[in-house]
From TrEMBL, chain A:
Keywords: Amino-acid transport, Cell membrane, Membrane, Transmembrane, Transmembrane helix, Transport. GO terms for biological process: amino acid transport. CDD domains: TM_PBP1_LivH_like. It comes from Paramesorhizobium deserti. The keyword Metal-binding does not apply. It is found in: Cell membrane. One of its GO terms (molecular function) is transmembrane transporter activity. Belongs to the binding-protein-dependent transport system permease family. LivHM subfamily. This is ABC transporter permease. Its main location: membrane.
From TrEMBL, chain B:
Keywords: Cell membrane, Membrane, Transmembrane, Transmembrane helix. One of its GO terms (cellular component) is plasma membrane. It comes from Paramesorhizobium deserti. This is Branched-chain amino acid ABC transporter permease. InterPro entries: ABC_transp_permease (IPR001851), LivM-like (IPR043428). Its main location: membrane. Pfam families: BPD_transp_2.
Length: 287, 335
């Protein structure tokens, strides 16, 4: 019973971190049809900035998170202008190569600037230690990560389903040309959602730093995981991504607890099975 | 496809003669480069053999990606299958004749090609990429787990191939391995030249251009790509087995996602959809890597990234494609 509960809490925390990072990827992929392999690199940049701000500048955790999110968006804007603009609507192979190239560059530069060691983001005292939930003690940080995931999911749901911007966003996802013809300024919708996606990636990178440690190969190590989440959830679908994250977080954590010697064998087996059965993702719509 | 035929019809000489001529020229250049490599870098033949082995992987990837338009990031699974099969045949079953090991590698590569073809072709777009990545990771984890068979993370060591044809020992300077590799590469190159020029090869190009139209013409898209995947697996198997025979050790890196991604980078650097492009891409990439990564491996990653971005932006057809387009334009201008 203890094991089951430990697995459940860890799986939930891991799944929520995955969700916060990859939901941005899902939205941009559904909207702009860009296979963005560099998404994890932006989460990594967020983690590095937060670590630098908290450890070297000595600011508080909350401020460090804000600096990381806006700093990463600032870094991403020129990259979007100069590089991503050119691959919208290009064949997948081109997009894959361009974004892998960006990932490699960011890894190399991160290592040059920050060195190859693991970076930690010091937690505030409130998030250290553990909370007793009655049946067992749970690390406060795990609960914080779960809470962040729920807040992000709720906020995104509200933004997309209940606001005027959400209407324009959904219209652009469904049919960009028609939305533009009806007076939606799709360029602005694209730019804003790209910024939100990058900001969420950075936020997830900081909040999840305890689970997915920040180091130069972060971008490459978790790139596949984020892509898997999006393709299983179905690009552009929030409930799909949430379901995929919980499912994959559960499979991965269970595998690690019960059969650590198999590594990620069962994770990838499950991925192949799910994609074969649902080629468009769990919540994907037929085109 | 139509453009290709027009191009041949416009040229003054009969198409067949001209094609055979350019084929002979290509093979002659490869032979000349191989001989030059042997005499210019007698102490680096191990590196040259590795380049040939990886070139076979890139050629095999070109068949699927360049000719059929299937984007995959998991092609090292086929290469690693060939390498591990050849190695395990030698270590566990006592099959130490290099040609027999090669045959085992080809069979295993073909089987892995068919398996990944069946899985990868289930989806399109992003899910297809994810499937291909999942396959290579699955192979990697399986090889890691079955350590009594594969040596796990230590690698499969003590592969001791017999002398080639009973005459030529595999020596410390990789002379035999290098010559063996060059001969294999030439055979594969000539066979693939015939394959991609055949009606079957043309059908594959047609599928890349417009699969719906090919289906409407009555051809089987799925079946054709599966056959190409089998051929591709055999070629990758040759590369893998060559690696096992020449280095006498097989590591988990031959089944890695990184190798798959690097193979794709080499292919695009050289130019997709042409066999010489694959060769040129491999040679220039690995040569460059050998020089730069000796200095600093992390700068190497930055440079590869920048190189990729530049190729995508300014030379989307790769080194070979851009050069041959340039030459063609000059010929047009002269006429």
């Amino acid at each position: 019973m203890q094991t089951v509960l430990s697995i459940a809490v860890d799986a939930l925390a891991y799944g929520m971190v995955l969700f916060v990072i990859s939901i941005g990827l899902s939205v941009t992929m559904g909207l702009m049809r860009v296979v963005n392999l560099a998404h994890g690199a932006f989460a990594m940049i967020g983690g590095y900035i937060a670590s630098y701000a908290a450890r070297d500048l000595g600011v508080g955790y909350g401020v460090a998170v804000l600096i990381a999110v806006f700093g990463t968006i600032l870094i991403a804007i020129p990259i979007e202008r100069l590089l991503y603009r050119r691959i919208y609507g290009a064949p997948e192979l081109t997009q894959v190569l361009m974004t892998i190239g960006i990932t490699f560059c960011i890894i190399g530069i991160a290592n040059f600037v920050f060195g190859p060691t693991l970076k930690t983001i010091p937690l505030p005292p409130e998030l250290q230690g553990s909370i007793n939930l009655g049946f067992r003690a749970v690390a406060t940080h795990r609960l914080f990560a779960i809470l962040c995931g729920l807040v992000v999911a709720g906020a995104l749901w509200y933004l997309i389903e209940k606001t005027a911007f959400g209407v324009k966003l959904r219209a652009s996802v469904d049919n960009a040309a028609m939305a533009a013809a009806l007076g939606v300024r799709t360029q602005i919708v694209y730019a804003v959602s790209f910024a939100i996606a990058i900001g969420l990636a950075a936020f997830g990178g900081v909040v999840g730093a305890e689970l997915l440690p920040v180091e130069p190969y972060y971008a490459l190590r978790y790139m596949v995981t984020f892509l898997v989440v999006v393709s299983i959830g179905g690009a552009g679908s929030i409930p799909g991504a949430l379901l995929a994250c919980l499912l994959l977080g559960g499979i991965d954590t269970t595998g690690r607890y019960l059969m650590p010697e198999f590594g990620e064998f069962f994770f990838y087996l499950a991925v192949i099975a799910i994609v074969c059965v649902f080629p468009r993702g769990l919540a994907g719509r037929a085109k | 496809m139509a453009a290709l035929m027009n191009e041949n019809a416009i040229a003054g000489k009969p198409a067949r003669v001209r094609l055979a001529g350019s084929d002979l020229l290509g093979v002659a250049i490869v032979i000349a480069a191989a001989i030059a490599g042997y005499f210019l870098f007698p102490n680096n033949l191990a590196l040259l053999t590795r380049i040939i082995s990886i070139a076979l992987l890139v050629l095999s990837l070109d068949l699927v990606t360049g000719y059929c338009g299937v984007a995959t990031l998991g092609h090292a699974a086929l290469y690693g299958a060939g390498a591990y099969a050849a190695g395990m045949a030698a270590v566990h079953f006592g099959i130490t004749d290099p040609l027999a090991m090669m045959a085992v590698g080809i069979l295993a590569g073909t089987a892995a090609g068919l398996l990944s073809g069946v899985i990868v072709l289930r989806a399109h777009g992003l899910p297809q990429l994810v499937l291909s990545i999942a396959i290579v990771h699955l192979f990697h984890e399986a090889a890691n787990k079955a350590s009594s068979w594969t040596g796990g993370s230590d690698g499969l060591a003590s592969i001791a191939p017999d002398p080639l044809l009973g005459l030529f020992e595999f020596d410390l300077w990789s002379r035999t391995a290098y010559v063996f590799g060059v001969v294999l590469l030439l055979v594969v190159l000539i066979v693939l030249r015939l394959v991609v020029r055949s009606p079957f090869g043309m059908l594959c190009r047609g599928i890349k251009e417009d699969p719906i139209r090919i289906r409407a013409m009555g051809a089987s898209v799925h079946g054709t790509i599966m056959r190409m995947y089998a051929i591709s697996g055999a070629v990758a198997g040759v590369g893998g087995a060559l690696n096992a025979i020449s280095t006498q050790v097989v590591g988990l890196d031959s089944l890695s996602f990184t190798l798959s991604a690097e193979a794709l980078v080499m292919l695009v650097l050289g130019g997709t959809g042409s066999l010489y492009g694959a060769l040129i891409g491999t040679v220039s990439f690995l040569w460059f890597e050998d020089i730069v990564s000796a200095a600093n491996p992390f700068h190497w990653l930055t440079i590869v990234g920048a190189l990729l971005i530049l190729v995508v932006l300014f030379a989307p057809r790769g080194l070979y494609g851009t050069a041959s387009a340039f030459l063609e334009r000059r010929q047009e201008a002269r006429r």
